[in-house]
Amino acid sequence: MRCFIAIDLPAEIKEELLKIQESIPKDIAKFKLVERENLHLTMRFLGEISDGDIAQVKEALKSLSYKKFTASLNNMGTFPSIDYVKVVWVGLEPEVQIKELRDKIEKALANSGLPTDERFEAHLTLARVKSIKDKAAFAKKVKNIQAKPLSFDITSVKLKKSTLTEHGPIYEDVAEFKLK
Q1: Considering its fold, how many domains does the chain have in total?
Q2: What local confidence, expressed as pLDDT, does residue 39 receive?
Q3: Catalytic positions, please?
């Protein structure tokens, strides 16, 4: 089963992200927007894992100890770089707390014998870019998009299943783990 660990977003945040998506310059780039129902904060992509590994992940996340906190939308950015754009995203703050939570997740997974992944950037993917006609103009326009600094509470993490279809991925909750 293809899985990942994520934080869901409240409706108000998703609505703001949809408004931001409308600002991404369609005239100079081809891209696929992330659908409203698929907007989330990925804490860890697990990939294809067995039922046994799913049980291990659940056990690891049960032991997760971290306090609830409030996050807010931040600046816009691109991955991997402005010269080679594949993803347009909006950042989150406080980055320190989000990264601490991510580190706790990684430690819990490692303690369960699952492989770890060091790469992480606190971001919400808005679009996956296929091509850009004018990189400089695209970069400037993306940089000028402003997200309202809306806040939301992070109270749990979820283990999610991702089923790839010809119409895009379908995400389903497998388990939820509340923060203290």
Answers
A1: 1
A2: 98
A3: 40, 123
